[in-house]
Amino acid sequence: MIAPTSFFSDYGCSVRILEETRILQSHRHNVTICTYRNGQDLPGIPIVRTASIPFREHYEVGSSLHKVAFDFLLFWTVLYRAIRRRPDVIHAHMHEGALIGLVASGLLRIPMIFDFQGSMTSEMLDHKFLTKGSPFYRLLRWLEERVDRRARVILTSSENARRLLIEEFDCRPERVLPLVDCVDAEQFRPALESEKEELAARRASLRIPDGRKIVVYLGLLAPYQGTDALLQAAEGIVRERQDVHFLIMGFPSVDHYRAVARGRGLAAHTTFTGKIPYHQARDYLALGDVAVAPKLSATEGSGKILNYMAMGLPTVTFDTPVSREYLGDKGIYARAGDAESLAQALLRTLAMEPDRARALSRELRQAAIEDYSWERAVHTIRLAYKTACQAPSNVL
After folding, report:
1. pLDDT confidence of residue 396
2. Which residues have CB under 8 Å from 371's CB, separation 6+?
3. How far apart are CA 46 and CA 34, in angstroms?
């Protein structure tokens, strides 16, 4: 696997890579992950890292010119490892990984599949790294199209992403397989009655006052993730109800958003935890009464929604194709990008009758178990490998 990120980090794309690796290992596949210098090592996961760059030791997330240097080092790491081990398949994540994988695939005649997690140029626009009219945008859009069309097989993290590739990037439908994000429902499970004292102690350690309803958020903190909209909505909610607390878990820019919350008069109604280790995420989500997923990106997946579903948390989200795909009629939706609409949707959910909330919780968890299991998804990954091994060679 090619992972052009700081694997493992406690957020979306790393979680997908980890869970895919674990399920493949359980089906007796040998997986080695080639990734950047930074990131957490995990027991039982073979990881090969690039050399470090002295002037950018602490890179974690986001678009950056330094990624060009990281990806150059990653290419040589992948090529050296592939020459030594001669893998059956190169499984490349994201566009940088797919570009590296296509070159290595062409040089060594090893089949490659592309694990698509969103449009590269759209993500750069979301991160304010590019503007749509710039010549760099046009160049990168051309490169993105070329990578998409040259991959033998593409796995997409949502049906919406599959439609995007077919309709906007002219990819052949038979080469694009949806591998919708999944969740480990044994790890992410609702709180038990026997955990009541433990949950109360955790709540106290976070200084959340008794008697408050808790709205939980888990993910990156950034404008395109909807963090600004969430805090704007929280301000309106607290004006109407004083018994609500927002537990906001994630990184980066924690100090910035803590200051924004303070400026909106939310200091007493928000707790920012910073980064939460993935293996502890469930324990903190278990404190929640309602979950929120205000992501604004139109092309990326939103795996946090599946974690919320497995926890049985009523979930409020902006009305986007990906959110609709995951939640269907079990979601509570706000107009995309509209903070006031988000506030009203959260207020309605917080006021939901207890019987209705319990029934919705059961429905959400059941959907997570039945429709978003990695045990089901592994068959799609293996089909992609088989298809790639039988397809004719394509190189850049």
Report:
1. 41
2. none
3. 9
